[in-house]
Amino acid sequence: MRRVYQDERMMPIQGGLIVSCQADPADAFYGLMDRFARAALAGGAKGIRANGPDDIRAIRNAVELPIIGIQKSIHDDGNILITPSFESAQALAYAGATAIALDCTRRGQESGAFERLRRIKTELKLPVMADIATIEEATAAFEAGADFVLSTMRGYTADTYQVSHFDPRFIEQLVHALGVPVIAEGRVDTPDLARQAMEAGAFAVVVGSTITRPHLVTRLFADAVKTSQEFVLGIDLGGTNTKYGLVTTSGEMIWHDTATTPAQSGRAGLLHHLERIAQAGVARAAEAKQPVASIGIATAGWVDPGTGRVVYATENLPGWTGTRIAETISATTSLPVFVENDANAMAIGEKRFGVARHFDNFVCITLGTGVGGGCYVGGRLNHGGHFFANAFGHMVIQPGGRACSCGQSGCLEAYTNAAALLDYANGSYANTQLLIKAAEEGEPVATGALAEYSSHLAAGCGLLVQLLDPEALIFAGGLAQNNPMLLTLLENELAGRVPVWRERKLKLLMSGLGYHAGVFGAAALS
Ligand SMILES: [Zn+2]
Fold this sequence. Notes:
- There is one protein chain.
- By secondary structure, the protein is of the alpha/beta class.
- The chain folds into 3 domains: 11-220, Aldolase class I (TIM Barrel, Alpha-Beta Barrel); 230-335, 2-Layer Sandwich (Nucleotidyltransferase, domain 5); 357-515, ATPase, nucleotide binding domain (Nucleotidyltransferase, domain 5), CATH 3.30.420.
- Helix content is 39%, strand content 20%.
- The strands form 5 sheets. It has an 8-stranded parallel barrel with strand order 1-2-3-6-7-8-9-10, surrounded by 7 helices.
- A hairpin with a 4-residue loop joins β12 and β13.
- The protein is elongated and about 90 Å long.
- The mean pLDDT is 92.
- Bound molecules: zinc ion (ZN).
């Protein structure tokens, strides 16, 4: 049910920008928030959000804009809570706040936010703004009588910590779910995002740090200037070889090397191997007089990128399951370490440095000894619920068909790995590179083998296209490199299989990162 909002005190903010004028005691501008409010007014702001009675009093004397008052205080659990008591809200009201915002997340609700909300409305007679992080919290706050809902806490609570960017679609969902005005706040750090928030149906938009924390804005520029002189060490730990290299943030590889992976040496042996490579990379960077800023590690096996732990690895790397790679390598190198599954890392590498830079929906498929991949859906890498997603190689394309290493029969991998391609030529070629070259030169056995290979690959890709409707399929790995004929054959196969093929405008592309795709992918993790 929609509640018509008619409180004239807050109407001036409709369709406008609210500037959050806050400073920590350590900030150079602490105590000068009234100046920031005057600057905000001069720039066209329609409201101010401010912390604590002192700032609010000063701002109230400086400008006549509506002020959303908050009180950031340390709560019983040791963390900051926004407006944690009725008394704190009262002090904001006396100082001149036009409305009071309070934390109505699950944690806030557990601290009695809704009781405070009711008292603020009845006793102080001020509009209440609910700072929330999820739709559920927003709905509860609306039902408890909040006059506005603000997306302020999204990305800052235990339930939403994985959200790192402002997403206008969340605003759209709030607008649809609620009967009160929605105000966009939290990481709205460009004019374009602010505009998108309004297009999504926001009543107003709050922008803070980007406007009122000059040191943060300075740091953005300082980092942008500085990082081009730092290296990331990318390590691609494969079952046979480990490739590694130093990559600049603009995607230039200035040094690389390869070592044999001691795959059978167990957890301790593999960690020692990674430590030695990390030391070699750090030493090489020191020679170039530019430090290593961080280390990215792409590994076979399923990985929880949040903790840098191997969730599960096959017997290709015995003992690797459960290894806390990031923690261990970070402890010995004193550098930030990021870990990801190798196929996912490759997709991240393509998005950051390669041919996928302008795509939000694409699938990276590696064709080699094994077949795997990574996919982006709506601009994000898909991890699945338990980090087991993207096992494309084990989609069954031929029930009861060829036996696969995973125990199933008829997997895509069993039909499209290197061994299968050699099989289609009846063992006429010693390796896939020779076969691919022969096909280029028109040798019938080789072209026939490649055609058979393409039809099986098309069966798997057709499923992906139907499920995900990607903008592009990007191929990497030994069987895709230097093999343009494969894309032509595959495109013809797909065109004959996939419904509404022409309308999809799907692009089939070769990886832009080549032999070192894994190293670039690892480097792109940080
Ligand atoms: Zn399988």
